[in-house]
Specification:
heterodimer, A: 126 residues, alpha/beta, Transcription Regulator spoIIAA, 6 strands, globular, B: 187 residues, mainly alpha, 0% strand
């Protein structure tokens, strides 16, 4: 399956989804002009990946800032990853946040609560 | 007229589900119990997803609002501190201008006193000596000159202060005009 890589910009995050290793990364800022246009390819990729996933899927999320419409799609990304659990795969989420950004950490906790996925938290020193 | 930004439809999937359910309901009387159960389960699942989204978005939104309020309060505090510092700075500048004017005035008066002293010794004293031989008159004139030095110094200081303040005001107006000009250029 194709390695999905999208370069980060001022408005959209870096995307690095590798089906061979099961390692995925979403980092930067997410305030795209059209969230559907940006996130839909990611969701389609994840749905396809979930049909034949790696033994362990690890998603690293390190977002400085994201808007409300992005938050909806990030939830969608996590829910689609959760489908992998039905195929006896393991899914781990590494939620990273800057050391003075308590709000981002709490947002991770909200995602964990709503999705029921297994989250680890990492504080990144500036 | 401004161009309207196209609205992003991030809920088109949810709208599609709703339309589908509405369409189903319009012919629900003809549906079998199995079809009804299937549709109910699908609607329930869609509702659960929407609820999850709502819960999440509400929590994130409230948190960001609190952060915004805290940041606004901090900005207001910093603004007040900045205003106080500005006033302090202005007072210090005024004191410095006054001190500078005072020093200048003292120098001018000193030179003036020196000139008066030489004038008095070279011209006034010999005149008094040759015409009246009254030492008290000579002393009185010198005393009068000495007493006039202080008011003269105050006048000179006042004049120098006015001139310095006018100069500062002119410089500030020029700076404000320059800033306004730059703002207009940026727009």
């Amino acid at each position: 399956m194709e390695h999905l890589q999208i370069k980060g910009t001022k408005l959209s995050p870096l995307v690095d989804f590798n089906a061979d290793t099961g390692k995925m990364e979403l980092s930067g800022r997410s305030i795209p002009e059209n969230s559907y246009e940006f996130y839909n390819p990611l969701l389609e990729w994840i749905s396809a990946y979930a049909q034949n996933p790696h033994e362990t899927t690890e998603l690293k999320v390190y977002l400085e800032y994201f808007n409300t419409s992005s938050s909806k799609y990030i939830l969608e990304v996590l829910k689609r990853l959760k489908e992998i659990l039905k195929n006896n795969g393991t899914v781990k989420v590494l939620w990273c946040y800057d050391e003075d950004d308590e709000e981002m950490m709490e947002t991770g906790e909200d995602y964990e609560d709503v999705t029921g996925l297994d989250f680890d938290y990492q504080e990144i020193e500036e | 007229m401004g161009r309207k930004r196209p609205k992003e439809n991030i809920y088109h999937k949810e709208k599609a589900h709703l339309e589908h359910t509405q369409e189903f309901l319009s012919s629900a009387q003809e549906a079998s119990p199995e079809e009804l159960m299937k549709e109910l389960k699908a609607t329930c699942k869609n509702f659960e997803e929407l609820l999850d989204q709502t819960v999440l978005i509400t929590r994130i939104s409230d948190r960001l609002q609190r952060k915004l309020d805290k940041t606004n309060d901090k900005l207001q505090q910093l603004n007040d501190q900045l205003n106080d510092k500005n006033i302090e700075l202005q007072n210090t500048i005024d004191d410095l201008i006054k001190a500078k004017a005072g020093r200048k005035a003292t120098s001018i008066v000193f030179i003036f006193a020196l000139i008066l002293f030489v004038f008095s010794e070279a011209l006034i004293d010999p005149y008094i000596d040759s015409n009246t031989k009254n030492i008290y008159l000579s002393l009185a004139i010198k005393g009068l000159i000495a007493m006039l030095i202080k008011p003269f110094e105050m006048l000179v200081e006042e004049g120098l202060l006015k001139s310095a303040r006018k100069k500062t005001l002119k410089e500030r107006k020029a700076l404000i005009n320059k800033e306004d000009h730059l703002e207009i250029e940026e727009k």
